[in-house]
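Bug #77: duplicate submission created two jobs. Keeping one. Sequence:
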Amino acid sequence: MTNQELIQLYYKHFNSQNWDGMLSLVADSIAHEPNQGEPRIGIDKFKEFLEKMDECYEEKLTDMIFYSESTGQKFACEFIVNGKYKKGEEGLPEAHGQTYILPASAFLTVENGKICRVTTNYNLEKWIELVS
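Kept job's structure:
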């Protein structure tokens, strides 16, 4: 499997809510750098993040476009998040099943056949506006 196919499979697992499939593609030392807050380092923290996401949100990504640089180790992906806000989180608006459509992007690095970094970007203020 090429690194680009690995990235595409990662997002295929995301869209099918196959969290174990996603976890199988990331390095034990994965660095997950969210839009807001401190990075999560390590597969255990990334797994906790996926569990929280599954509890609070239902999301599908569409209109995905993948980019890579010349070494085939660094990738970017832009997409549209089509979501449902299921359960509120501290510091965010109350959840009552609001839906949202929001552009977002991610930057990923692959080393030794595993994803070792995922950095996500989206407009949090716009998301808050959409669910408020």
